[in-house]
Amino acid sequence: MKMKCPICGLNKEEGSDYCENHQTAYSNLKERYEDWKKAMDITWKEYLEKVIENENTGEWAREVAIHLVNET
Amino acid sequence: MRCKTTSYTLLITEKPSAAKRIADALDEKGAPKKREEQSVPYYDVVRNGERIIVVPAIGHLYSVAQEGKGWTYPVFQTKWVPSHTVNKRSKNTENFIRVISKLAKEAKNFISATDFDIEGSQIAYCVLKYACGESSLRKARRMKFSTLTKRDITEAYNSLSPTLDWGLIEAGRTRHEIDWIYGINLSRAMILSLKRASGMYKALSTGRVQGPTLAFIAERERKIRSFVPKPYWTISAVALIEGKEYPLEYSQRKIWIKREAETVVEECDGKRGVISHIQTKKSTQRPPVPFDIGTLQSEAYSNFRFTPSRTLRIAERLYLDALISYPRTSSQRFPPSIDTRAILEALSGMKQYSKMANELLSKEKLVPTQGKKEDPAHPPIHPTGNLPERKLNDSERKIFDLIIRRFLAIFGEPSIRESLKVEVEVNGHLFYLRGRRILEHGWQKYYSPYIKSEELILPQLSIGQEIKLGAIQSVEKYTSSPPRYNPKSVLALMETQHIGTKATRADIIDTLYSRGYITGERITMTPLGFSVINLLSKYCSEVLSVELTRELEQEMEEIEINKKTRQEVIIDAVEKLTPILMEFKLKEEAIGKGLSEALTSLRKEQRIVGTCPVCGDGLLTITYSRKTRKRFVGCSNYWTKKCDFSVPIPQGGNIEATGKTCPYCNFPIIRIRRPGKRPWNMCINWQNCPGRKNTED
User: Fold this and answer.
1) Which CATH number fits domain B231-281+415-440+449-475: 2.70.20.10, 2.60.40.150, 3.40.50.2000, 3.90.1150.10?
2) Catalytic residue among B42, B326, B446, B513
3) A38 at B interface, C-beta within 8 A
4) B173-225+497-599 has which fold?
5) A28 touches chain B (CB under 8 A)
6) Edge-to-edge strand list for the sheet holding B107-112
7) Neighbours of B16 (CB within 10 A)
8) For chain A, how far is it from start to end, CA to CA, in angstroms?
9) Using CA atoms, how far apart are residues B422 and B458, in angstroms rounded to an integer?
């Protein structure tokens, strides 16, 4: 049986933690953290909190960030 | 004395208003006799002792339909039938067919005087073939014109083409048949898969242009939704010169590291700067190119927020009033045959354009700018110089003014602008002070309401001059996702991707809205739209392929120039579609299940119009009365007996939430969309809204 995406309940992609859409957003989040670290002194958690608050953040990216914050 | 002959030439136009214009222009006394049968007007015209009956169609009187019975797929056998037999909305076409058939019996000659393009030629062909009889096709001649002015019409009548325009007709027939084959088969495949999987019915559709267009919108939506912003800093500073503040721009527009931005502020704060360099640059801006339909739609959206389909409808009305030339044109180049001076002379007779037109007429040479796009059938959209014979409504006035001013602007001189860049060094950091002013307005004088340009005049400055810095700070900013599409940018995208035609693009965008795939002026994909795209790309991605539709467009263009035949192109299209449909059939269950899930979620979402301001936490939801089956909006807290707010709403059209609240009563505002009508907004609390009462008072 295929596992469901913990955020939206759609099927997870093979070898992924999320569905296709949220997995793309998760990859973007990880990639962008490197830019934020270079730009300012920031921890992963602080970064996620900033991304959640930011009005330019896309809906799926925000959902993943909220999920990650709640998990930690 | 009127002509007494009974035999006549039957001249067929595309619409009743065009019939009247043509009859008025051709009748030697300018007073054709109007007759009417079964509510169909036609005109008895006498010209050079010959009798002409001018009779209108009302757009397409015939449509493509399925040969044989059964609501299934695949279906590739098509036939042409009267539109009223397959489309309830075409009921009024029945009388037109009857009257034209009757008039054709006594006609000795036939003239096709529909709009000179694929659709117009196709309309006349069907009327001649099916209403007037096959033999009329051999006798028929073609009248070609680009405006409905008396001059153009009489010229066109005096130089009739001896035969019909077969290239356009064949291309038109092929386009209709291929679009029908693609549209019907793919839409039925989707509807039937949904019905078989869930028993639900919903009008779903895709087609050879609709699919790729929706795919483009979906791709953008994915980028927006998975976007993560990146921080950057800008330096905000002002220069104080002669007691006035001028914005200073730091030489590095975006600073990607916070500490670096802070250092700039620390090192410049309270310091004085010195002007190290002054650069003045003059730039000329040529007048804009003449309007083709795409640029007109784009400009109307930018200035008035009119959707492309609305602009097209308005432009068509202005054309039928003989105020502008034929709007469905791709041309941005004026052929020498258009007497532009005469048009300017006519415009000089209109009070509000008189001064501008006379100014241009005083020029020795009148040379319009020419764009890149050409259309052999029609010139760019331009005013005819005629005055409106009726009071134009607000929207018509706006489009008419835009077209006239654009026409004036293309004869104008280039505008000349001077920009000034002053380099200011502050403690080793470089800042810019920028000024701009217009030296010569040129063509902008004529087009000024539709241009946004601001001047910033700097005081007299010199190299070595000291500049005092005002407030300076670093501002944290974030990158943003690519912008959402709007109807204008989707139209431009379709044009650059060469999908659809100038006549169909606007309607395709409307269909995406009416199917519930997209919503909002800043276009957002709905769950249903996403679901359709995901399922199609998973199970039959060819339907979304731009290449496939582009190839077909190319082939249809080749029919126009007799490089390919209708049969060849249709066979090719069917061969391409057959494997797609077979694949679809095999995966029908999975596709249907996916669609049904998306539809359920969409319907749930669409019923909610906002939060209830009466109880504060209920959701105002569109509900259907069990007794009357009528819809109304009620609060979801009704079921817990906490709130009993309810209000009647319009029964017709699609209702969607706008996400906005009424400034007067704080109730949600909904938008009502009806096919072919302009969407309108309404406060849910319309019965008691103080805003409404204010307006009525």
Assistant:
1) 2.70.20.10
2) B326
3) yes
4) Topoisomerase I; domain 2 (1.10.460)
5) yes
6) B33-37, B40-47, B50-56, B8-13, B107-112, B141-142
7) 18
8) 27
9) 10
Buried b (16+ CB within 10 A) or exposed e, B444-462: bbbbeebbeeeeeebeebe
B448 in Cβ contact with B430 (< 8 Å): no
CB proximity A39 to B under 8 Å: yes
Residue B256 and residue A57: Cβ atoms within 8 Å?
no
What residues form DSSP beta bridges with B141?
B111
Q: Which residues pair with B648 in a beta bridge?
A: B632
pLDDT at B202: 85
Query: Minimal Cα–Cα distance from A5 to chain B, Å?
Result: 15
pLDDT tier, B2 (very low <50, low <70, confident <90, very high otherwise): low
B83 or B520, which is more confident? B83
Q: Which position has the token pair 């950057």?
A: B232
CB atoms within 10 A of CB A55: 8
Sheet with B654-661, edge to edge strand ranges: B654-661, B668-673, B680-683
CATH architecture entry for B293-409: Orthogonal Bundle (1.10)
ipTM of predicted complex? 0.97
pLDDT of residue B540: 84
Q: Does A19 touch chain B (CB under 8 A)?
A: no
Nearest to B73 by CA among B189, B176, B172, B164: B189
B225, B229, B232: residue with CB nearest A59:
B225
Are the Cβ atoms of A56 and B479 closer than 8 angstroms? yes
DSSP class of residue B62 equals E
Contact B230 A32 (CB under 8 A): yes
- Least Cα distance to B214 among B514, B480, B481, B482 occurs for B514
Between CA B407 and CA B287 the distance in angstroms is: 10
DSSP string, B619-659: EEEEEE-TTT--EEEEEGGGGGTS---EEE--SSSEEEEEE
Determine whether the interchain pair A61/B226 forms a contact, defined as Cβ–Cβ distance below 8 Å.
yes
Contact predicate B436/B419, CB 8 Å: yes
- Closest-CA distance of chain B to residue A6, Å: 16
Across the range B598-604, mean pLDDT stands at 79
The stretch B480-507 carries a mean pLDDT of 90
Predicted confidence at residue B145, as pLDDT, reads: 93
Contacts of B258 in chain A (CB under 8 A): 39-40
**Cα A56 from chain centre:** 14
In total, the C-beta contacts within 8 angstroms joining chain A to chain B are 60
CA distance B657 to B608: 7
A44 touches chain B (CB under 8 A): no
In sign, the C-alpha dihedral spanning B334, B340, B343, B348 is positive
Q: What's the rounded Cα separation, in Å, for the pair B43 and B524?
A: 49
3-state helix, strand, coil in chain B (%, to 5): 40, 25, 35
Q: d(Cα B683, Cα B9) in Å, to the nearest integer?
A: 56
Interface test with chain B among A4, A40, A66, by most B beta carbons within 10 Å:
A40
Compute the distance between CA of residue B497 and CA of residue B42 in angstroms, rounded to an integer.
42
Q: Is B326 a catalytic residue?
A: yes
Give the residue extent of every domain in chain B: 8-164, 173-225+497-599, 231-281+415-440+449-475, 293-409, 612-696
CATH class (in words) of the domain with range B8-164: alpha beta
Whether the predicted pLDDT of B87 surpasses 60? yes
Through-space distance between the first and last CA atoms of chain B, rounded to whole angstroms: 58
